[in-house]
Write a structure and sequence with these properties.
The chain is an alpha/beta fold. It has 13 helices and 13 strands. It has helices at residues 14-26, 64-78, 90-101, 122-131, 143-151, 166-173, 197-207, 223-232, 249-254, 269-276, 304-316, 318-334, 337-350; strands at 2-7, 31-38, 50-53, 84-88, 108-113, 137-140, 157-159, 183-188, 212-217, 239-243, 257-260, 280-284, 297-299. The longest helix has 17 residues, at 318-334.
């Protein structure tokens, strides 16, 4: 069986890491090939993917509609001999569903949706409504995503939750020695509106914990805006942007508290990975596996005061930190790789 795994980039997001793991789970299950739309490969990988468009950004001289037309034509040609295609994230999913609707993709098409549709614009949701129904299977990473897909007309929806490899994370976390000064709060993710880093920075200001620092891992379009907010709140020297790290786990391991301040999430891998590293976690109420007072302190989205209050609470209570971290670790262990891989193998067998 020839299986293609397709995604637009490998720039470092949680969904992209999951796509790599699906590929690894099935690599002995048939003839597998990993295909990337654009030449953006920042994640550490031990295989060579096929790149459809050989540049990181669209050339300035090429109109967007021409770029998209060429990309779709190349995808059609590349995928013509595959029996199964597994696609990840809305942009690539829509392209392949469109080819399927036109009879130009003669394979079983599986689209994997990693985010809730709240993350998409009205135009993007209209594309999902129009084309996702042509996929043979739609995989959702959580019940919330599955409900979104059902509302928008997707067919044959299956839920396969993501996993975390605890032993592998622990090994990666020891590859580099990292020291974070003071009592350290750390957050990680793309610097976008969805991640709510502006709320976190404001809460950190209100918490006003003298010997604490806030560290933020990641890059993105909101970086300059967030840096300006740090200056406006007179937090220079208290908030540090660490940028993108190919291996973020030594930094997560080194922090005292991991914070997820997201406005929207489906199944946030960074949060689960922090739990796997026995971190104390504060999260917003969009994290499906976070249970308030058990494995996390959970706060409402965009509630600056509640987040600040819990940052102070967790700073003052060492026993609470230890209890939450142990329960977080036990939670992470439930999402094991073997079950994840078997679910995808069963899916392939069923179609």
């Amino acid at each position: 069986m020839k299986i293609a795994h397709v995604i637009n980039t490998l720039s470092g997001g949680g969904a992209e890491r999951v796509a790599i793991e699906v590929f690894k789970c099935l690599k002995d299950y048939g003839e597998n090939e990993f295909i990337v739309g654009k030449d953006v490969i920042k994640l550490p990988i031990d295989f060579k993917p096929t790149v459809i468009m050989p540049f990181e950004k669209k050339p300035f001289y090429m109109p967007s509609f021409i770029y998209e037309k060429i990309l779709i034509e190349k995808l059609e040609e590349k995928l013509k001999d595959f029996e199964v295609v597994i696609s990840h994230l809305r942009d690539m999913n829509v392209r392949l569903c469109m080819l399927k609707s036109e009879g130009k993709l003669n394979c079983k098409l599986i689209v994997v949706e990693h985010v809730t549709t709240y993350s998409y614009s009205k135009k993007e949701i209209n594309l999902i409504k129009k084309f996702y129904r042509y996929a043979d299977v739609s995989v959702a990473v959580s019940e919330k995503v599955a409900q979104n897909l059902s509302d928008y007309g997707a067919k044959n929806i299956q839920i396969i939750e993501n996993f975390v490899d605890v032993e592998d994370l622990e090994r990666k976390a020891l590859e580099e020695k990292v020291n974070l000064e003071g009592f350290s709060f750390l957050a990680a993710g793309r610097l976008s509106d969805d991640k709510g880093f502006d709320t976190l920075i404001k809460a950190f200001k209100i918490a006003n914990i003298k010997d604490s620092k806030l560290f933020i891992l990641g890059e993105g379009s909101k970086k300059r805006e967030l840096m300006n907010l740090v200056e406006k709140l007179d937090l220079k020297g208290k908030v540090e942007f660490l940028g993108f790290k190919k291996n973020p786990f030594p930094y997560i391991k080194a922090c005292d508290v991991f914070v997820t301040s997201s406005r929207r999430e489906a199944f946030p891998m960074a949060t689960l990975e922090a739990m796997a590293l026995k971190k104390t976690v504060i999260s917003t109420n969009v994290v499906p596996f976070a249970v308030d007072g058990y494995n996390s302190l959970v706060v409402p989205v965009d509630n600056v005061e509640a987040l600040a209050k819990n940052m102070v609470k967790i700073y003052k209570d060492k026993n609470l930190r230890e209890t939450l971290s142990e329960n977080a670790y036990q939670t992470a262990k439930k999402y094991d790789r073997q079950r994840f891989c078997q679910n995808y193998r069963n899916l392939i067998s069923s179609i």
